[in-house]
Specification:
- InterPro entries: SASP_alpha/beta-type, SASP_sf_alpha/beta.
- This is Small, acid-soluble spore protein, alpha/beta type.
- Pfam families: SASP.
- The chain is α+β, with helices and mostly antiparallel strands.
- Helices cover about 45% and strands about 15% of the residues.
- The protein is elongated, with a radius of gyration of 29 Å.
Length: about 100
């Protein structure tokens, strides 16, 4: 949104410092509101989303459509990584046990 497209508030003015360093009175313009990526995604798939409030009435299906999959591949990957870590830890324990048995 360009400077001229910002919504002005009629009858409201603010003091600013001009390019010449002098104080001047200018018409107040509403600040731009930034749209989040979640709101943008929700708008594209026609899901109601409140950026600054409660989305408690949103279904899990709609939340997943906005933010991606909640389960499935992500959970599968986490389980895989946990199994790898447990296996590595088990092997390390076995090696340490063998080293402790040597005289």
């Amino acid at each position: 949104m360009s400077e001229s497209e910002k919504e002005t508030v009629p009858g409201k003015a603010v003091h600013t410092i001009g390019p010449n360093g002098q104080l001047r009175l200018v018409e107040y313009k509403e600040p731009e509101t930034e749209v989040t990526s979640a709101k943008e995604a929700a708008d594209k798939i026609h899901v109601r989303y409140n950026e600054h409030g409660d989305n408690g009435d949103m279904t899990t299906r709609d939340a997943g459509r906005i933010g991606g999959q909640i389960g499935g591949p992500m959970v599968r990957k986490m389980v895989y990584l946990a199994k790898q870590e447990l296996a590595k830890q088990h092997v390390d324990d076995l090696i340490e046990g063998q080293q402790n048995k040597r005289p």
